């Protein structure tokens, strides 16, 4: 194969890889924008419009996301469940406004978690989550069982907003550890004991801080970087080979001229 043909072939392969990723990014951006629009409409109580956007999201998600295998099975499961809850929120006129917004916000954060490659939006919930948790901890340290239960309910409501996003972004074992501690303090709240609960809450607080403190690393598909690296290397080698052939040809031509002279 001629050098130019080699370069052209690998240029086409690289461009094709970039095109595939660009198409995928375009779909994710579109889905993310739909989720955001649904949330904004919900906040202004424009529920019919929010419902229409969520239904369009489902169609687009099914056509592009599911069909083309853009998402993992866990992502499909989590986002589908979160979307179902958001749709239920905007169609149930008897639902409390705060609860409705909470469910749609949870869906919006989950959609962002799938599309974000660096700083997901759920990270911005750190202040709210940790503030609510601090109230739980304060009530426990004061031995106020009634305040403890009220604060714990508020914390759990806030935590469930980011829980679908955590299922998408966190390793399964890390999330399981966190959820098991939260389930424990919720299930056995009637056995409230100031000192014992202080130890549980201290451990839980450290886990919560960890999930917010580690920024996301670049999660670009390693296969893309492999293609880029290999293509670059081959192009460099090809150009080097072409230069060497040209140099060798010029030397031979010069020798022939010297012999004739």
UniProtKB/TrEMBL annotation:
NCBIfam families with a match to the protein in the record: spore_ypjB
Signal peptide: 1-22
Entry's transmembrane regions: 224-244
Species whose genome carries this gene: Siminovitchia fordii
Gene: ypjB
UniProt keyword annotations, A-Z: Membrane, Signal, Transmembrane, Transmembrane helix
Keyword Protease among UniProt keywords: no
Pfam families xref list: Spore_YpjB
The organism's place on the tree of life at top rank: Bacteria
Protein's name according to its UniProt entry: Sporulation protein YpjB
Keyword check for Transmembrane: yes
